[in-house]
Write the structure tokens for this entry.
Amino acid sequence: MEKIIDEQKQGEQLILEGKKENTRKLYIESYGCQMNFSDSEIVASILSEQGYNTTNLLEEADLVLVNTCSIRDKAEQTVRKRLEKYNAVKKINPNMKIGVLGCMAERLKSKFLEEEKMIDLVVGPDAYKDLPNLLEEVDEGRNAVNVILSKDETYGDISPVRLNSNGVTAFVSITRGCDNMCTFCVVPFTRGRERSRDPKSIVDEIAQLWDNGFKEVTLLGQNVDSYLWYGGGLKKDFEKASEIQKATAVDFAQLLDLCATKFPNMRFRFSTSNPQDMTMDVIETMAQHHNICNYIHLPVQSGSNRILQEMNRQHTREEYFELIDNIKKLIPDCGISQDMIAGFPTETDEDHQDTLSLMEYVKYDFGFMFAYSERPGTLAGRKMIDDVSEEVKKRRLNEIIQLQQKHSLYRTQQHVGKIEEVLIEKSSKKSEAHWSGRNSQNTVVVFPKEQYKPGDFVNVKITNCTSATLIGEAVGHSKMHI
Ligand code: SAH
Ligand code: F3S
């Protein structure tokens, strides 16, 4: 098991009611990060205008789309396995078309068509608006490929169809792409340059969610803290912007403030924060608004300064500690989670010990931990030898996971005896008699249902815990939110 907490069920297919007049059936599956799940909602929205409603039955689909992840080799292998399954179904239903979306499409491009003969369509993350044209080509019997990356596409004008939704929490994309070029990471190659979305379209999307009864929004980006809107375009071109554009620019702290102020009863989260881009302004804004959750996903990847440098992470271990101290000073009960990579090229046991000691300092609430997986095309893939053996990677990863489990339990235990505000999302997976929701720190809380319902903000007295879940009893509706 690589992850302690699985944030989403991978490969979950998406279901929506759809338009009555639509006659064709789309089966869409998503793998990887939240951005992929969010993108699939954009794709479903574009295709609902083209006569497609989604189905959860692969066998009856006219079009099968798989939104893919390239972040680690294992993620790609999972997709290859699914392609085998689609292929088997296509043999029975030869009219079925198969398309690959997302990061693997971008990474492999038309090579995909040679490797997997049954694929009809390859579409990269910035080309979804071209789907109607591409599907026309496919209908005419040709393969179609569009993997052009864009400098300004944000899909800001597309209102996503909320798929597989609990009706309570939703993701809203605010940036696309990433300019950070961490040496291990394929994302800058598959998702292109970083661009920010117009705050007006973000606010409009949140307003629509609020009108539809949603209660929590997670602002989404590969690197949300570097959000910057000055009228469109790349962040690096900001220097060339006019004085007026500069004066009216909106950064991430301002965007958070804008959202939290405009929607005082909506709860806000954001993900992901690269430590190098997180400013005091953001932490202060979080502290000022009760409806911005006290939780930061703050991946560090390694606790060794030498490895951080090799990874091209633009901060030291000491600077990271300073950031953690500042967060805890302003938001003492802030939940913090990590991503870690075990066995990056040249990592020694001493470097690994630095990672463990960093974890001891922070005592993260939870984390996502991975063995290093070399990705073709990245700087580490081209310039460094993947020289830590699989066995050593596994051992180090296990040590990191064990330590995280200890810290997770330590953190959940701190909640026992307290009364905490929880937003109810759904029935608990383990018991129909219990609700499941999350507190401000993003820890899952389960408690007997009583008279409450999904979407309610409830005060829950925490009575017990495991390392991943808090268990409690509701003591009434929360007054903070309506
Ligand atoms: N900023 C992004 C990070 C995307 S990748 C975000 O929004 O989450 C998510 C995590 O996958 C990274 O933080 C890193 O810990 C891990 N990861 C990325 N590339 C990897 C690789 N080549 N091998 C192992 N883990 C990797
Ligand atoms: Fe990847 Fe680093 Fe960006 S992990 S997504 S290059 S911040």
